[in-house]
Amino acid sequence: MTVIRPESNEESFPVLTTSEIRRWFPALDRRQGGFPVAYFDGPGGTQVPRQVADAVADYLLNHNANSHWEYPTSQETDAIIAEARRAVADLLHADPGEIIFGANMTTLTFQLSRTLARSLFKPGDEIVVTELDHHANVDPWKAMARDWNLSVRTVRMVPETGRLDWDDLHRRIGPKTRLLAIGAASNALGTINDIPRAVELARSVGALSFVDAVHYVPHNLVDVRAWDCDFLACSAYKFYGPHVGILYGKRSLLDRLDPPKLEPAPDTPPDRFETGTQNHEGIAGVTAAIDFLAGMVSLADQNGGRFHLNSRRARLEAAYGALHRRGMQLITQLWNGLTSIPGVTLYGPTPDLARTPTLSFTVEGKSTSEVSRRLAARGIFASNGNFYALTVARRLGAEVDGFVRLGCACYTNEEEVARVIEAVETMAAR
User: Where are the alpha helices (DSSP H) in 93-238?
Assistant: First the structure.
């Protein structure tokens, strides 16, 4: 096993190499047009390692039941859900009782917005959203504002840099602000926002904070305690898991909220926030996905010595550190290669700024659909459009056709990045 050496002043831990990681992904065996498929569509949903598929199948074949009953498969289902809450709590540095599951982040955000409106807000209160966000963190709050006679204020992004206008954020936050809804990272541009700073600003006027971390969690380890955010949402299918949405909420807040629910549904968090029967097999897969990430770290070095990584959270910290460094190396290679091609326009912050390994680009004279199709013919799968970051596309003059988006995942390697650059260069030359 190759050892990935952390930066100075950090202890070294053996982490699986990219080649070793790739062996766990059967999707990488696929070929398209004679080429091995390179999946750059991770920002819309990553591929799944074998362990996750096995966990889903094991639940359906051996434990399938509804919850909270007295027979073994139902009790096993309860145990699987409880373990998934513990796994997500380790991933986010939260308490298991603060973890809520749902269909997806969008559905959970609509549900939470309705819950907050009926529990805490009153007519005339203000909600602050940003232009940089996926509309799943914009439109639920706008719908709530219409239904409950609230106001929405929108923070500008700076088109030239793809970053938030922090002066404008300070102007938008005021004494009537009750909630700041902000993304940890832009799914279209890769921009990472300073969440602790934003949360502190909201807290200074007594406002709550809701963080969309869907695009952030696959690339950087969240710490909700350090961030001190009130709510945070993410999606397991963006970090190698099934299609399951996740919502974190501070327990002190969850106890105060009155979510819409059926009688006689459970009346204590987190169960009372989960409407209907959950995707139990998907929830089993969530645990497997988190354990897959934590399992990239070995507890024994090549000389037989032992490292002190006795918790899942500690192993996640070590794995995420190595994956982050690899991802930034790949995005730098990709950015520099595409920047050098005449007719190619890149959007968002440069690799030396806080960002994820995701970028969007266009090719002069070619639609994004054409670029995406031509890449697919060479075995490169990349999505195109606005990715529900519609305001970002509008501000950048790309509302009609959008962008081509490339995202590096844990299984992306340098050869695949080089293949993208060569393919775009050939396309642009034509």
Answer: 105-119, 139-148, 166-172, 195-204, 224-227
Model confidence pLDDT, tens digit, residues 20-56: 999 999 999 999 999 999 999 999 999 999 999 999 9
291 to each of 32, 216, 355, 382, how far by Cα in Å? 31, 18, 25, 27
CATH code of 35's domain = 3.90.1150.10
Rounded CA separation 390/70 (Å):
48
List of residues 6+ apart from 62 with CB closer than 8 A:
none
Indicate the number of domains in the chain.
Answer: 2
Phi and psi angles of residue 170, each rounded to the nearest 5 degrees, phi first: -60, -35
Q: Which of 328, 319, 306 is nearest to 15 (CA)?
A: 319
Q: Give pLDDT tens digits for 343-380.
A: 999 999 999 999 999 999 999 999 999 999 999 999 99
pLDDT exceeds 60 at position 2: no
Does a structural domain hold residue 127?
yes
CB 368 within 8 A of CB 401: yes
The greatest distance separating any two alpha carbons of the chain, rounded to the nearest whole angstrom, comes to: 67
Same domain, 227 and 320: no
List, in sequence order, every residue forming a beta bridge with 246; answer none if it has no partner: 101, 234
Pairing state of beta strands 151-155 and 157-158? Answer: unpaired
Q: Please indicate, yes or no, whether residues 91 and 150 belong to a single structural domain of this protein.
A: yes
- Work out whether strand 177-183 and strand 126-130 pair parallel, antiparallel, or are unpaired: parallel
Verify that 411 and 381 share a domain, yes or no.
yes
C-alpha to C-alpha distance for 390 and 414, rounded to whole angstroms: 31
Identify the domain containing residue 57 by its residue range. 53-290
* 164 belongs to a structural domain: yes
Q: Which of 165, 146, 148 is nearest to 157 (CA)?
A: 165
> Is 234 in contact with 252 (CB distance < 8 Å)?
no
Q: Where residue 261 falls among pLDDT bands split at 50, 70, 90? A: confident
Name every residue whose Cβ is closer than 8 Å to that of residue 61 and which is 6 or more positions away in sequence.
Answer: none
Position 268 scores a pLDDT of 84
| 183 within 8 A of 193, measured Cβ to Cβ | yes
**Residue 13, token pair as written in the block:** 């831990």
Show the tokens assigned to 263: 């009688």
CA distance 242 to 221: 19
Residues 132 and 86 in one domain: yes
- Residue 252's CATH number: 3.40.640.10
